[in-house]
Specification:
- By secondary structure, the chain is an alpha+beta fold.
- It is built from four helices and eleven strands; from the N terminus they run αββββββββββααβα.
- The protein has a single domain, classed as RNA polymerase II/Efflux pump adaptor protein, barrel-sandwich hybrid domain (OB fold (Dihydrolipoamide Acetyltransferase, E2P)), CATH 2.40.50.100.
- Helices cover 17% and strands 28% of the residues.
- The radius of gyration is 18 Å and the shape is globular.
- Its main location: other.
- GO terms for molecular function: actin filament binding; actin monomer binding.
- One of its GO terms (cellular component) is growth cone.
- Actin-binding protein that regulates actin polymerization, filopodia dynamics and increases the branching of proximal dendrites of developing neurons.
């Protein structure tokens, strides 16, 4: 008696894949492989995360600490947003640092905003449990939430790569490292 092959379960897209468009900024500030991922929601809110290829998410690195203290006078934790017009939000440029990640091997990584806009919130949970940054980088381990200006919401993706373009960059990197 022949058994019928079971129908494959339909793949259900994750919440992130369903509601957000992934944009990538490779080699942020010219630092090789320090790639960031920007999850853009249809309401123009952008969630800043680390791309899968970022060194912090590779090679079993251990995060010692994360700091939102950018300089002696600037801490992203001091960001207080209120009201309909998001008063009090810190304004960020594309290159504005959001946080610093310190690894146990002495390496230090600065995560940049990658988009112009107002800082809505930072993820304080990663301060207390840095491992979620590595375990769930696109969800609970996000870095910050940025709201671009309405007028600029269409142009913020200029200079960012789509998922397909980013995958092509990754293939080129792999080919370059295997050839050398």
């Amino acid at each position: 008696m022949a058994t019928e092959p079971e129908a494959a379960e339909p793949v259900v897209p994750s919440l992130v894949d369903r509601y957000f468009t992934r944009w990538y900024k490779p080699d942020v500030k010219g630092k090789f492989c320090e790639d960031h991922c920007i999850l853009q929601h249809s309401n123009r809110i952008c969630v800043i995360t680390l791309a899968e290829s970022h060194p912090v998410l590779q090679s079993g690195k251990l995060i010692k600490s994360i700091s939102y203290q950018i300089s002696t006078n600037c801490s992203r934790l001091q960001n207080k947003v209120s009201g309909k017009f998001k008063r009090g939000a810190q304004f960020l440029t594309e290159l504005a640092p959001l946080c610093k990640i310190y690894c146990s091997d002495g390496e230090e990584y600065t995560v940049s905003s990658c988009v112009r806009g107002r800082l809505m919130e930072v993820n304080e949970n990663i301060l207390h449990k840095p491992s979620i940054l590595q375990e769930k980088p696109s969800t609970e381990g996000y870095i910050a939430v940025v709201l671009p200006k309405f007028e600029e919401s269409k142009s913020i993706t200029e200079g960012l790569l789509t998922q397909k373009q980013y995958e092509e960059v990754m293939v080129k990197r792999i080919n370059a490292t295997t050839m050398s």
